[in-house]
Amino acid sequence: MHHIFGIFKRDVRNITTNWVAAVLIGGLIFLPSLYAWLNIYASGDPYGRTDKLPVAVVNEDKGADVQDKHIDVGTDIVETLQENPSMEWHFVSHDEAMDGVEYGDYFAVMVLPENLSEQLGSVVSGNPKKAEIDYYVNEKLNSIAPKITEKGATVIVDKVSSQFVSTVNGVIFDMLNSLGLELEKDLPDVKKFENYIFEAEKSLPEIYDLLNRGLTDAADAQNVIHDAQSKLPAAQQITDDGLGQINRVVTYLDDAEKKLDETSPKIKADLKKVRDISNEANDFLKKLQGVNLDFTELDKAKKALDDRMTQSIDRVDNVEQDLKQLQELARQAQAQAQAPSTEPETEPSAGTEAVPDDNTGQTPSLPKPDLSGKLDGAITKTGDLKRLLQEAQTNARNVDSIVKGKAEELDQAVDDLQKIAGNTSVELDAFLNEYVNTIEPTVKSEISQAKSTLGQAKGLLTDIQAALPQVKTILGNSDSDLDEGKATIEKAVAQYPFISEKVNELADRIRSTQGETDINEIIKLLQNDPNAEKTFFEEPIQLQENRLFSIENYGTGMTPFYTVLSLWVGCLLLISLLSTDVHQEGYTARQVYFGRLLTFAVIGLLQMLIVVSGDLLILDVHIREPFWFVVFGTIISFVFMSIVYTLVSVFGDVGKAMAIVMLVLQIAGSGGTYPVVLLPDFFGVINPFLPFTYAIDVMREAVGGIVWERAVKDLSFLLLCSAAFLVFGALLKERINRGTKKLLKKSKEAEIFH
Questions:
Q1: Is the pTM above the cut of 0.85?
Q2: Do the domain assignments include residue 305?
C-alpha cells in the first residue's frame, strides 16, 4: 500500500513541477467538459427556435360559393400563418417556391390548391370530397428539419380541419336544436303515432279477416250486380206493361166518368119524374078523400094511379139499367187493375241492387177503384124502389076486389092508396137525395181518386223507366269498381304478410326504444346550446398532461447522456496521452496498477467536477437533485476510469481499441438518444450489459427525480462492473502484460505504432 501511494505522490509532484505536464493535464481535465457543454447547449431547445426554419406557402385557392355564401379558405390560412410565429413563413408564387425548395432556400413548401374552398364546401352536397394541401419537403438538407416542418404542416391542417369541423358542427347543432324544439312540439303526435302502431299491431288479425270478408262480399255483390244486369230488360218490359195497364185502366175510368156524366142527368130527371108522378098520385088520392065516389070514379082513379105507377116503374127501371151499365164499366176498370202486370216493385237507386221478384217477375196489382160497391148499393136501392112501386101498383089493382060490395070500405081503400102513394113519395125523395148527395159524389170522388192514384203510379213507373238507363250505367260502373276493388283487396291480402311483419317489427322496435331510451332525454340532448357543442367539437379532446418527472427542455433531457459520454471521452483522452505503466524499477505489476489508477481516478474526478459544475452553473439545465447529480457523477467517473484504465493497463494498445469499440456500442445501444425498443434487436440484446445504460439511467434519476429502487439497481451494476474490472486488472495484469509486450515489440517493428 505504501508503494501504491508513493507512485501516486510522485505523479502528482511531477505534474505540479513540470509546467508542460501541468498544461497538458489541465487541458485533458477541461476538454471533456467542452464536449458535454457544447452538445447540451446546442440541444437546449431546438423546437423553440423553429421560427428560424424558412417554409414557403403558395396560395392558389380561388374561393367558392357555398349556400349563397362566399368562402375563401386559402386567404384565411394565409392570415392565420401571418400571425403564427412558429416558422419563418414565406408567401411566394408556385415557381419561386419550387425553385427555392429544390435549391435549399426553403426546407418545405405548402401549396394551397385552387379548389381548396370548393372541396371543403362539398360537405353540403351529396358527394363530399376531402380537401388536399400539397406538401413538398427537401429531406436532403437535414434529417430533423423535415420532421419539424412536417409537424408544422400537420398542425396547420389540424387547425384548419378543427375550425372547419367546428363551423360545420355549429350549423348541424343549430339544425339539431331547431329539430329538438320541433320534436318537443310534436311529442304528443309522436306518442299518438306509437299508440297507432300498437293498435295496428293488435288489429292486424281482424284487418286480415275483414280483408277476406271484403273479398267474399265483393264477389257476392258482383254476382248480385250481374243478376241485376241480366234482369234489367225484364224490368224495362215490366215498366212498359205497367204503363200500358195503367193507361187502359185510366181509359175505363174515363169512360165510366163520361158515362156517369151522361147518365147522371137522365137518372136524376127520371127520379124526379117518378117523384113527381108519385106526388101527383098522392095529391090525386088526397082529393078523393072525403069525396063520395062510386066505383066508376074509383076505377078511373085506379086507372090513373096504375098508369102513373107503370110510368114510375118504367122510369125507375131505366135508372136501374143506367146504374148497371155504369157498374159494368166500373167492374171492367177494376178487373183491368187486378190483371197481372210486370211492374218493378221499387225504384233502384245508385249503389243499390234493384231487381224484380225472382219468383213471379210481377209487381202487386194497380190501385182498384171502389166503384162497384157504391153502385151495388144504389142498384139494390133502385130495385127496392121498383119493387115498392110494383107492390103499390099491385095493391092498387087489388083495391077493386077488396072493396067490391063493400062501399063502406071505399074510403078506407082510398086512404090505403093514399098511404101507399105517400110512402112511395117518401122513399123516392130519400133515394133521390141519397143519389144526389151521396151516390153520385162518392162515385165521382172514387173515380177521381182512382185516376189520381193511377196518375201517381204512372209517374212512378215513368220515373223508373227513365232511371233504368242510369241504373244500367251505375250497375256497369259498380261492376267495374268492384273489379278494381277486388283487385285492390287481393293485392292487400297478398301484401298482408309483409305489412304484418313490418308493423310487428316497428312495434317491437318502438318497445325496445322505449325500454332503452327516453325520448325526453333525446329532446333535451337536441336542445343543447349549439355554441357550446360547436366549441366542444372544435377540440373534443384536450390532453391533460401530468408530468411525473418534468424535464424543462430538451437540453436538460439530453444532459445525462452528454455528461456520461463526456466522462467516457475524458477517460479515452487520458489513456491516449498518459502512460499506464511506471518506468521506474522496483514496483510490482499490481502496485503499478493501483498506484497509477489513483492518478487516473483523481484526474477523472477533476474532469467530472468541471463537467457537472458547468451543467449546473453555466448551462440552462434544471437538475432536480444537484447534490446527487454530483455524487452519481463521481461514482460514474470512477467506474468508467476503472474500466478504461484496466483495459489499457492490461491489454495496452489493444485495450485502447477495446475502449473505443465499447464507446461506439454504448452510444448506439444505451438508449441515451432513442428508446432501445426503437433500435435494432442487436442493441436490445447488448443494452443490459452496457455501463452507459445504467450510468445514463442513474443520472436521469438525479435530473428528473430519484426513484431509489432504480437508482440503487443502477449503482449496484456499475459498482459490480467496476469491482470486476479491478479484480481482473489486479490478478491478470502481470500475466497478460507479458503477452502484450511481445505484441507491442512486434508492432513497433512495423515503425508505424508508438
A1: no
A2: yes
